[in-house]
Amino acid sequence: MNKHTATSADVAALAGVSQSTVSRSFDPNSRISVATRQRVFEAAEQLGYQINKAAQTMIKKRSDLVGLVTAGLEDPFRSEFLHKLIIEVQNCGLRPMVMDVSDRETIDEELHGLIQYQLSGVIITSGTPSENIGKAFIRHGIPVVLVNRTEHSDEADIVNLDNEGAGEMAAKAFIESGKTNLVVVRSKKPSFSSVMRVKGFLNYLAPFLSGDKVNATEVLCDAGNYDSGYQIADKILTSQHKPDGIFFCMDHIACGFLDSAKRLVSPNEMSAIGVIGCDDIALASFRAYDLTTIRQSSSEIARASVETLLNRLQSPTSAPSKQAIPVELVYRSTLAKPQRTNIE
Amino acid sequence: MNKHTATSADVAALAGVSQSTVSRSFDPNSRISVATRQRVFEAAEQLGYQINKAAQTMIKKRSDLVGLVTAGLEDPFRSEFLHKLIIEVQNCGLRPMVMDVSDRETIDEELHGLIQYQLSGVIITSGTPSENIGKAFIRHGIPVVLVNRTEHSDEADIVNLDNEGAGEMAAKAFIESGKTNLVVVRSKKPSFSSVMRVKGFLNYLAPFLSGDKVNATEVLCDAGNYDSGYQIADKILTSQHKPDGIFFCMDHIACGFLDSAKRLVSPNEMSAIGVIGCDDIALASFRAYDLTTIRQSSSEIARASVETLLNRLQSPTSAPSKQAIPVELVYRSTLAKPQRTNIE
DNA sequence: TTGTAAGCGTTATCAC
DNA sequence: GTGATAACGCTTACAA
């Protein structure tokens, strides 16, 4: 019907009130007589009026958009995490604006462009963007939450998984199961998570290694995906010194390995080799794999990330927070839960 | 340094030009002397100036945001598709604002809220939103692209997969392989894609069915996921009349079925049963499954969807378009490519 | 090519 | 509780 979209002035005219009264009617905190608000709402309804967010943003100097910076969405864990983030952001009345920075030359430049949108905040879940870009946001008054990216920042809030704890947990599980010849596999390209996971793994093992009873090797595969796991199996299973416990920094790599292993060693032999993955993606629980793994709760991180952002919006000047979300060992068939522990 | 974010006026002051000259300098279509533009850019750089999108949107009456309406992101095909959409939207200088409408009571109401953002367009990939909501967008001048949702709309542009073609293709492959006792499995809850896939499957089979040589049964499983496929295997493989060809409307269901089948029938027996999935998600090519399937190119649909939107933005009044993206049969080990066809 | 000035549709600050 | 009125930062005629 109406050529142009209705504005608050149109509503005001129809309701027979001033434009500012219309504005107030849509603000729950404004005290307005019930009758007036009622009349305004009816007029608004009739005209199909919707607040113009651009105008609102201009005056409030803040939109209700939250930037979600991601990369590598082909990794199911990341994509699951993004999904959870989207839900969480929505649930608190904000709008997720997603930015994928995979394979981008000019990441920092493009990210800089987000400043134009007067975002309520930015949640950075990719390792790619430089440190500087976070600072640029903060300089423009846009809160930044760094997820699983770094140990420390004196400006941005931090939410991490307990990556190191995950590594330790895997190492502990192997030791408790009496495994002595251990391998830890991560992608060649170092990511914050994988490096910390390996670190935790080796740290836990350190005292055992010196006793010479246990040894541990770090193996690098090409990438963090199924195919790399498939390939790396040759290297691991045909070595002279076959391991009896393998920790993969990502479930996907572990699954590739498991499929590949079926060609290389007998089921019987394979059953003697403990395998632990990391993330607990959906695939890990499929019967074809039934992978023992360290569960990272994507919902928990998402919840914590958004909560952190909301806290920051409430108290913009408080000191940056930092938290690590705990992880959990899920026993499945690739490493059975030991009946009794071998160590105390 | 500067307390407040720099505006074009600040830049103008520093560059010694008028505010409108600054504005023009950032518009590639404006003709401005090289020297002036240079001077403006330097001043902008120095002040860390960024265009304020809210102000820009207000005057242009259109933001560069595109609404991506999704649901069921736990389905890997959907999540992969969303990923591709995000990339495509980014690549044409627009910004994806994602809205997940899964498990939402008040979908239409919430979607209505998107009107507030002066979106450049909305791409609806979920079946949940009602027809009306699309009309509401269009009434407000926001172009709508419907993806895999419906056969017809006289206002919105449509991009579909060739779902019916996919079903036909599967049926044809079975017939060519000499399979005669066929089953088609879809999720209990009807979705546009699965219903059309089944329709295509049965349509192609119709002439053979009447000859009584071939028969086909439709089986419903609980949901469109791995577990439902796992469960449905019992029903299918323990029936008196075991099928020799099964078409699953989603790869995920097929994979669950395949894992479950390993418990129920011997590998030898299983090798006589042809299985075809649909979508060609990453999982389908894993060695554990190596599933013959109908590939739907998520990149292609994403590309087509965004292209459709851009076309619409260029010519707002042209008649709504409709296209179907072709699909492709990928032979893997669950149904081998026949050497010669049995029919002409 | 550049400057001046008039909006765009809200919210916020005053009066009343 | 309500109504004027002044921003907010940009684009775009219109003038020069």
The helix/strand order of chain A is HHHHEHEHEHEEHEHEHEHHEEHEE
Major sheet attributes of chain A: 6 strands, parallel
- Tell me the number of structural domains of chain A: 3
Q: Determine the most extensive contact between two protein chains.
A: A-B, 52 and 52 residues
> How many strand units of chain A?
12
CATH architecture assignment of the largest domain in chain A = 3-Layer(aba) Sandwich
Strand order of the largest sheet of chain A: 2-1-3-4-5-11
Helix content of chain A: 40-55%
Mean pLDDT reading of chain A:
93
CATH class of the largest domain in chain A: Alpha Beta
Radius of gyration of chain A: 26 Å
Number of helices of chain A: 13
Percent range for β-strand residues of chain A: 15-25%
CATH topology of the largest domain in chain A, which one? Rossmann fold
Contiguous runs where pLDDT drops below 50 for at least 5 residues of chain A: none
Briefly note the structural class of the backbone of chain A: alpha/beta
Give the distance, in angstroms, between the N- and C-terminal Cα atoms of chain A: 77 Å
